[in-house]
Amino acid sequence: MKAIAATQALQLLRTVFGHPVFRGAQEEIVGHVAGGGDALVLMPTGGGKSLCYQLPALLRNGTALVVSPLIALMQDQVAALKQLGVRAAFLNSTLDGRAVNACEQALRAGDLDLLYVAPERLVMPRMLECLAASELALFAIDEAHCVSQWGHDFRPEYLQLSLLHERFPAVPRIALTATADPQTRAEIIRRLALDEARVFISSFDRPNIRYTIVDKQDPRTQLLRFIRDEHDGDAGIVYCLSRRKVDETAAWLVSHGVRALPYHAGMDAASRAEHQSRFQREEGIVVVATIAFGMGIDKPDVRFVAHLDLPKSIEGYYQETGRAGRDGAPADAWMAYGLGDVVQQRRMIEQSDGSEDYRRVSMAKLESLLGLCETAGCRRVRLLDYFGEISAPCGNCDTCLEPPQTWDATEAARKALSCVYRTGQRFGAVHLIDVLRGHATDRVIQREHDKLNVFGAGADLDDQAWRNVFRQLAALGFIRPDHDAFGALCLTETSRPVLKGEQRVSMRSVLPRKARAGRSRRAATALPAADAGLLEKLKAWRMEQARVQSVPAFVIFHDKTLTEIAAARPADMDALGEISGIGAKKLERYGAALLAVVSA
Ligand code: ADP
Ligand code: ZN
Question: Most buried residue among 89, 268, 354, 400 by CB atoms closer than 10 A?
C-alpha cells in the first residue's frame, strides 16, 4: 500500500472504528484490496474479517457490495455500521418494493459506502443492470465456503457469483471464510475464479478460548456448577445430541434459575426464530441446542460453549466452540465426556446407512477427537496440529493449567479386559465394574459372576476410577460396543497383547478436584468491586439504548468496551476516545451520556 493510503487506513481505523491498531494480517489485506487486488482471506471466527472489506470500502471510490447469506446477520452488521456513521444499507427479501427502489437509487447516486445483498438477489438481471450503472468499490463475498458442495453450508446461489468476475472484471473481489481445510479453499478459488487472488491464511488459533474437557459424572450438575461458578449471567450455548435431551436440559436449567431456552429442528419455526432472536438481542441467555443451532449466530459476546455430548469430529468441535468469544474477550469451551459418549458415537457410525468409505472416514475422525479428549498434553497443540499448525503449549487449557498425571494402567487394563471376556462380552460398564469391585448385586448372583476369578479383583480402585479405565480402553480402541447387543462391550483384536501382558498401557488419571484454575483468570481480569457496580450501570444504560433503537445491545457497544470504561473511569471526552471501540461518531453520540454514568 502506498504510504498515504496506509496512513489513511490507520486513521480511518481509529476515527471510524475506534481501534488503535490493526490485528494480524488486516493491514496487509486492506492495503491489497484497497489497491485493487483480489484476495481470499482465511481467518478464524472473531479474527476480524469484516474490517478487511469495510475499510477498503471506505478507502475506494464507489460502493462496496457485500454478499452475505444470512439476512439477520446483514441487518445487525448494517445497524452496527450506521452507528459508526458509515453509509450502509441492505437489500434482501424482507424489504418491500418502495424500500428496494430507494436502495437502488441510493446505489446509483453513489450515496452508499457499503451495500449488503443476498446472493440470489445480486445475480438478478435487474440488480446487475443497476450495478452496471453504479460506481463499484469492490465485491466482498462473505462466508465464501458456502460455494463448496461438500460442506454443510452449501448455497447453490453462491455458484453463480463467478458471474461477477465476468461482468465486472475491473472490480476487485475479496472472499472470506473461517473454514480451514485445504479442499474447501481450493474449491472456493476454482468456483469463484479467484486464481489470481492473493491468499491470506491466518493462524486458526483462538487464544481467548480456554479449552476444558472434564470427566463426565453427573453432567447436568457439572454443567450447572460450571455456569454458576464461571459464567453467572453470561450468554452461552449448550450443545446436546438429541432433541429430547435439549428440552430436558433446558427445562432443568430453568428450574435451577438459569435463563435457558431450547433450540432444535423439531420445534416449530416461530419458536425457533424467537429463541434465536432473544439469544441474539437480550443479554445473558443460555441456548440449549442441537447442532441445528449455529449458522447465523453472529453474537460477539457468547462467553461459553458447553458440550454435554461428544461432537462427531474435531472440525465439528472447533466450529461449535468457535462461536464463543468472537469479541476476543476470555471465553470457555467446556465439555463433559465419558465412556457413554465413546460407545454412542461408535455405535452411531457402525449403524449408519452410509457407505463403507463413509464409515471409515467417520471412524477416523472420531478417533482424532478421542485423541484430543484423552491427551495428557496441551489441547490447543493437538487441535491446531489437526489443522496442520504447529504450536507450543498454550497455558490456557485444562491440561496446561492442571497437568494431568498419567499412571501405568497395565494391570487395571488387563483386569478390565479379562472381566469383559470372562463375562461373555455381553455386559456394559456398570455390571463389569460391579464384578470387578466385588459387588454381589442381584444380576451378579443370578449370572454367577461372583464365582469368576475376576470377581473382586479390582477392589483397589473405586467406581469412578474404573469408569475412567473403561472409557480410555474404549477411546484407545481395545474395547468397542457390540453391534448386536445393546449396551454390551466386547473386545477388539488389538486388546489381545494387553490381555496377555505383552503391551503396557498408560492412562490419564483423574485428579482430585483442585481449586479451579479458572479463578486465576478471573482474578487477573476482574474489576474492583466499585467498578463491577459501574459495569452493571453501563450495561443497564446500554440496554436502554438498545431498546429505544431496537438493535441488539452489542451494536451500541461491545462488552469489552464497557469493561474498559469501567476499569479506566475516563474523566473527559479525550480519555473516553482512547478506549477501544469508541470512534468519533460514537464519542459524539454517546460520550456525554457515558461520562455521566461514570461520574454518577
Ligand atoms: P469475524 O468476521 O472474522 O468473525 P469480526 O469482523 O466480527 O470477526 O470481528 C471480531 C471482533 O473483533 C469484533 O468485535 C471487532 O470489533 C473486533 N476487531 C476487529 N478488528 C479489530 C482491531 N484491529 N482491533 C480491535 N478489535 C478488532
Ligand atoms: Zn494448553
Answer: 89
**Amino acid sitting at position 451:** K
Ligand 1, pocket-test mutation among 21, 50, 582, most atoms within 8 A of CB: 50
Residue 9 host element (H or E):
helix 3-12
SS3 (DSSP) at 396: coil
Would you state the pLDDT for residue 3? 65
CA 241 to CA 265: how far, in whole Å?
12
Which of the 8 DSSP states describes residue 128? H
CATH 3.40.50.300 occupies which residues in the chain? 6-201, 209-404
Domain 6-201 classification at class level: alpha beta
**Domain 406-509 CATH class label:** mainly alpha
212 lines ligand 1 (CB under 6 A): no
pLDDT confidence of residue 511: 53
209-404 fold: Rossmann fold (3.40.50)
Residue 353, pLDDT score: 85
Nearest ligand for residue 333 CA: 2
Nearest CA to ligand 1 atom 2: 49
Give the closest residue to 496 by CA, choosing from 591, 421, 391, 595. 421
**Could you tell me if the CB of 300 is within 6 A of ligand 1?**
yes
Confidence (pTM): 0.81
- Ligand 1 atom closest to 26 (CA): 23
**pLDDT one-digit tens code per residue, 51-82:** 999 999 999 999 999 999 888 788 889 999 99
User: Which residue from 51, 116, 295, 560 has its CB within 8 A of the most atoms of ligand 1, so it is best to mutate?
Assistant: 51
User: Which residue's CA is minimally distant from atom 14 of ligand 1?
Assistant: 327
Q: For residue 513, what pLDDT is reported?
A: 42
Positions of the chain with pLDDT under 70:
1-4, 150-152, 180, 295-296, 510-530
**Atom from ligand 1 closest to the CA of residue 47:** 3
Cβ atoms 60, 35 nearer than 8 A: no
Cβ contact 340:471 at 8 Å: no
pLDDT reported for residue 404: 87
Residue nearest to atom 19 of ligand 1 (CA): 48
Question: How many angstroms separate the CA atoms of 443 and 493, rounded?
Answer: 28
Ligand 2 centroid to Cα of residue 522, in Å, is 18
Q: Which of 12, 21, 23, 301 to mutate to test the pocket of ligand 1 (most atoms within 8 A of CB)?
A: 23
Confidence at residue 357, expressed as pLDDT on a 0 to 100 scale: 83
Contacts of 511 (CB under 8 A, 6+ apart): 402, 404, 405
